Amino acid sequence: MSDKACLTNAELEFTQRLQMHFPRGILSDEVLCKWNGCKAEIIAAQCLEAFGKFPEPEPKTEPLLELIGTVAIPATTKKFVASDHFVKDTGEKAKVKISYLGDNFKAKFLGKVEEPMAKTILRYHKLRKGSVDEPILAELGGQDKAETTLFQMLALMAEQGNGEDGILLTNGYANIFYIRDINGVFWAVRCPWSGDVWYVRATSVGPPRGWHSGPQVFSRNSFES
Fold this sequence. Notes:
Elements: H1 9-20, H2 29-36, H3 40-51, E1 65-73, E2 80-81, H4 82-85, E3 98-101, H5 103-108, E4 113-114, E5 120-127, E6 131-132, H6 133-140, H7 143-146, H8 150-159, E7 175-180, E8 186-190, E9 193-194, E10 197-204, E11 210-211, E12 216-223
Parallel strand pairs: 3-10, 7-12
Antiparallel strand pairs: 1-5, 2-4, 5-12, 6-11, 7-8, 8-10, 9-10
């Protein structure tokens, strides 16, 4: 009967995991040769010392996001043409006072046309501590669950076109929406209210660009027919 046949299921699984996760290329051939020449009793004693107690628990990490609430976005029956709505206009009659459109936003989003969509529900969170985009997206459930649209962002901006109180922050902190551009590339689009106007910018998702604590992050919650 082989030695493996004498192992319990738990022992066999553990030795397989050791083999799978062995640190390849780290230990020198000289060190490995010394261990290979050791008596079985010495190897067994070292294994018992290393694995004879429970592993240290992984440290608990505090969540990045604090759920604030949800907001309903009405359905639209027409195509949403971004260039028709994201226009710099700070006049008294402007429905949404936009003072600045960033270069990335103009190049990647003004040519976008979004299809009509059903009524949607967005979740919005407070970013509790500084982070790059990847951990934020992971906590939201990945890109598919985090993805929002230009129409949804503008619908909320229109509710506070002149900086009125509402869902969007108007204290200078960013309101962050993760949106795909005309080429299907994922971007972080933000619309902070600063002074008496809205600013709209887009930054690529990924390090080294990151966010300080305080912004509000929006993501999809569900679709209603």
